Structures are given as C-alpha cells and as structure tokens.
Amino acid sequence: MNRIIPIAFHTFKEAVRDKVLYNLIIFALLMFGCAILFSSISVGIEEIIVIDLGLSSISVFGLIMAIFIGIGLVSKEIERRTIFHILSKPVRRFEFIIGKYLGLVFTLFVNTIIMTVGFYIALFYQTRRLDAGDLAPLATIYFILLQLAIVVALAIFFSCISTPIMTAVFTFCVFVIGHLLSEMRWLGEATHSAVVKKVTAVLYYLLPNLSDFDFITRTAHGEKISGALILSDSLYALLYVTVLISASILIFEEREFR
Amino acid sequence: MLAIETTNLTKDYPVGFWRKRPKRVLEGLSIQVEKGEVFGLLGPNGAGKSTTLKILLHLVFPSSGTARILGKELHDVSAHERIGFLPENPYFYDNLTAEEFLNYAGALFSLPAAERRSRTGRLLEQVGLTGSRNLQVRKFSKGMVQRLGIAQALINDPELVFLDEPMSGLDPLGRREVRDLILGLKEQGKTVFFSTHILSDAEMLCDRVAILNLGRMQGCGELKEMLAMGIASTEIVIESPRQELLDELKSYGGDSVRTGDRVRVEIPKESDVPAVLGRILQAGARIVSVNPVKISLEDYFLAQVAKDSRESGGKESRAQLTGGR
User: Fold this and answer.
1) Sign of dihedral through CA atoms B48, B54, B58, B60?
2) Partner of A216 for a Cys bridge, out of A55, A88, B39, B60, CB 3.0 to 4.6 A?
3) What was the pLDDT predicted at B321?
4) CB distance from A19 to chain B under 8 Å?
5) Which residues in chain A touch residue B91, judged by CB atoms under 8 angstroms apart?
6) Which residues of chain A have pLDDT under 70?
7) How many domains does chain A have?
C-alpha cells in the first residue's frame, strides 16, 4: 500500500510539468477576464454573468485537463513501456491504478484551487466586495470537483481497455451523455417504444448522472445548495468512482504487457 | 536455492483479428540459474528472449509451465524487492531529472529518503551521470538513458539483475562501460541474467548461456564447455617452407596462406597434427607456432540456429543471426 503515495506524487509531478496544463490554466484565467468584460456590458446582471461564466470556465477547463491528462495515465505508460519499470518493482497492480488515480485527482484539485482564486479575483473586481454570501460558489466548485473525480475514473477505466484516442472519445461521450441523462430518461418515459424505454432506463442507471452535479446556473442566480444534497452527491460520486476503479483494477490485473 | 528456475515454460500469444489462434513464442523452456552466476540468454530477434524475461517479471503470464525467482512463485511480487530490471530500449519519464527518476525508483522500494539520496548519488557516479543529475531525461542521449536504466535497476541493491539487451544501441565505449558494470556486479556476488544477440558480449561475460531460436532452447551450458566441445582445426605457422613440403601437407587437407616468408597451414583433423609436425621437422622447416582453433560462440550459435531453422523450414534468415555486431 505504501507505493500508492510515491506513484500519486510522481503522477502529480509529471502532470504539473506538462505544458498543456499551463496553457489550459492560462485559458481559464483569460475566460475570467472575458467574464468581467461581458458583465461590464450587461446591466443589472453583472455578478450573475461573472459567476456563471467563471464557474463554467472552471468546469470546462477542468474537464479538458481531466481528459487530456487522464488518457495518458495508464495508456501512455503502456505505450512508452514505462510500465515495465514500474511493475518490475514490488508494486502491485492495484497500487499502480489507485496511485495514478489519486495523483490526477490531486492535480485537478490544485488546478481548481488556482482557478478558484482567479474566479474570486474576477468576482471581487466586478463587485468590489466579498462577503459570506459569496462563499456559495464554493459548494458548486466542490460539485465540479466531484464530476472531475468521476471523469478521471472513467478515463482510467477506458485507458485500461482502449487506446489513448479512443479513451478520450469514450470519456468525452460519457461526459456529454451523463449531462443529458435526465432528458434521456424523460424521453424514454414519454415514448411508446418499449425498446427505447428499456435502453434509456439502462443508460440512466449505468452511466454517471452528471447533471446532478451541475449547479452553476442556479448558484449564479443565488440558489443555495443544501447539506443533504452535498452528502448524497458525495456518496454517489464515491460509489461510482469505487466501482470504476475496482473494474479498472480487475481488468489491469489480467492485462499482459508485451 | 536457485536464483531462477523454469520448468517447461511455454507461452502462446493469440493472433488474428476475428478468429484468434495461438502463436507459440516460447516452448518448454527449462533452465536453472545458480546464484552468483552471469547467465546469458542468446538468440536472434524473435527467439523468445524478451518474452522469457517478461514472464519471469510477471509482465506477461505463461500459458503453461512453472517458474520461480529466488524461491518465489512469479505472481508473488515480493520477490521483486530483491531484483532489478533494465528493459530493452528503455524509455523513462521525459519531464523528470535523472536524480528525481532514481528517487522515484527508490521510493517504489519504500527506501527511506536519506537512503534514496545516498544511493542515487552513488549510482549516478557509478554510471557516470553525476554531471547530468539535474538534467531532464528528455535531453539524454541513448547511451545516457541506458546508463540511467542500469542505475535504476540497481537502486535497491538487488541480488538478481535482469538486463534485456543491455548493449543495444550503444557505441563501443558505451558497450565497454556496460560490460564493466556487469563484471562489477558479478564481483559483488550478484546474479545477472541478461538477453543479448551480441555474441561477443556473451562470450566475454557469461558463465553459462542458453541459446534460443524460434521459442525453443537449442542448447544450454557452461560457455567454456560449449566452446571446448570441438576444436575446429589446428593452425600451424611455418617459416620458409619449401613448396614440396606444402604440396605434401595438402594431403592432410591443410589449406595454406603465405604472408611474407611465413606460411599458415590449417589442419582440420586433430589426429593428423603429430604426423604433420613430424613431417615439417623432418623437412628442416622451422615451426613458429601451433594453435588449436576453437569453435567460437558465434560458430556454435550459428550452427545451432541454422540447424533449427532448417528443421523449421528455414524461417530465419542467416543475416539476422548476428545482428548488432
């Protein structure tokens, strides 16, 4: 078990030295600048625009980082054969997967903190004040992090069974479908086709319901997030990640590295 | 206790897109490697050398047969605490410096930070990379990467070191350095198991070798015994012999080559040598030297591999056999 921390730390170190990461952070910070710009040409909804655009930037760029770095986690190690170096050491395969996962989640956590600081600077610039009420977006950012934790687990799962490009495609598709699951279920219920009903029901329960983690617009309009919702969504994310990582470990245990 | 023991180790890989069928890449490999010896696994490309190493390191799983490393089953990765491995054409993390990489390798063995620091410094010095300790691996030459690979294989002071084609892609100086490193490991009492298709390296380093071709073992044994198995011919150098004498020696099948006033005569049959020497002395010629010409590892290797290739329908080209020289 004590190999998980070095692997996680190494993953973090590799990720923070990746130029892609810095480019994405710069783009995210530029988006906050855009949020200020758009709010300055709006009347009466300046704060809403800064919060909406700012949180959306954190979400979108976090997702891009999760996919870009997540796909390389396992598949690049296999492709470049650095996996030989790791697995020839007394590292158990589950330690490798968990270490990689935690390393990337930690990387995304640190990046989200940086973007959160940028977001609050933009908010302060716009409103010229920050008070206790402005802490509400933090809960939304926490939900974004939960979403990213699921996306990283998806990326790890797909990279155990697929190539880097297909991993990116699959992960992105599940992310998009995950945000449309509620609509999909409504469609299934509204239709008369039994097949469509079944398919949408299976997808609804099988894929992660990411729209349940999306509170950006509601937060921008001042809606509060309850503690019960935070708890239930946290448990849901934890369960989903546990299932995905366990499945990844099972697949990885059987995998051969030629 | 043996360092490595394999019994009928066999590996099939599935090939084909729709209808997968097994392709045998290793068949019934049984070898025993004693502790403290340098053991070479020789064979042309595609012989099954890397597959054998990967099976022993639990990177691929055997289709049948068993193997033990340092007395432990292959799936027991606790044996990896005591082994080191250099993969073929190693590739390490571009963004890390040599020092950071070795530190990471040490952390995977749960070595304390102070121990990691001291071993890193010592190993970087041993492989001649002290001056490049803070350089990112992406800026390393191939030889430097290979040396760093050897350093990481030794970070845990292993009892058993696996080296997959350690001289591959190195210039003559680099090969010499790696050879010296392997000899140094032998002096320290470590077991070295390495695969190569560069026969001169094996001849220089190995106590014992196994020869693989098309997944099957063609021979295994002590190098000196293998090479002493036959004397190819006896070379006699004579000074200023008369032409009549040389014509007479032709009846023994001896080809002669003249260099200045010296003539080198090669006598194929060892049993003819006393008679030939007697005749030369009788003719009043001066004998400069008499040398038995032993079978080189390359000759032995080529003979074994060619024999097997003939039996298997000549799939392997002869040109492939001594690649890398």
Assistant:
1) negative
2) A55
3) 37
4) no
5) 80-82
6) 1, 43-44
7) 1
